[in-house]
Amino acid sequence: MELIKQAAIRLLLAMCLFVAGCTVVQPWERGNLAKSQMALEPNPLQTGLRAHINGSREAAAVGNAAQGGGCGCY
Fold it and tell me: Does the pTM exceed 0.85?
């Protein structure tokens, strides 16, 4: 019984710590979070161009799919 009580206390403590990290972002604060440095892909146009070139080199039928052949020459 004591083991279940300790596990419940630990779970409650962990839940309190996770909930404490949640916050509401105000509209005037969103500009700080929308900076280009925060993006998963900071330069999507360059990435798209490289993917297109790589797909053309590999003679893939669809985008980056590993279909088709090609020598992969530059």
Answer: no
Cα–chain center distance at 61: 26
Residue-wise pLDDT tens digits, 7-39: 999 999 988 888 877 778 888 888 877 777 777
| Region label for 39, one of left (φ > 0), alpha (ψ between -120 and 50) or beta (otherwise) | beta
DSSP state of 28: G
CA distance to 48, 54, 55, 69, per residue, from 51 (Å): 5, 5, 6, 16
Q: Are 68 and 60 in contact (CB under 8 A)?
A: yes
55 touches 63 (CB < 8 A): yes
**What is the token pair recorded at 15?**
């839940």
